[in-house]
Amino acid sequence: MQIGRFFSLQQGRVGQYLSPRVLVVRSPFQKLPKSGGPAAACYFGFDKLSKAQAFAKYLSGLGYTYQLRRGKMLSQYTYEIALREHTDLAKVLAYWDRMDVKRPNLSTSQANIHDRALQVAPPVLAA
Prior knowledge:
The chain is of the alpha+beta class. The protein is 33% helix and 31% strand.
C-alpha cells in the first residue's frame, strides 16, 4: 500500500489510500445527479467492533448515512465503515491517522486518549 498513489480497482474505479486505514474510491467517469461531480466513496478501517461502533455513532450524530460491515475494501481490517461522498471528512481523518503513525512511541494511555479524541472531535470541514 502506498499512501497517496492512485491504483485501479477495475470497472472504471480508482482507489487512493489517504492513510493506512482511510481509502477513497472514485469513479471518475460516472457523474452524480446532484453535484455533477464524480462518484466517490470513503472507507475507514477498524480492528475492533467497539471502535467502529463509536465512530458510527459519531457519524449518525452528524447526520451522515453510512454502512458498517466486515472489512471488504479494507480487507486488512476486521471492520470498515463505508461512507458515500464526504471525501473532505476522509481527508481530515486521514491526516490524524498519519499523525498517529508518525508518533509510535506514545504510551498506551496517551494513545487511548488521542484515539478517543479522534472519535468525538468534530472535523473541520468547509461548508
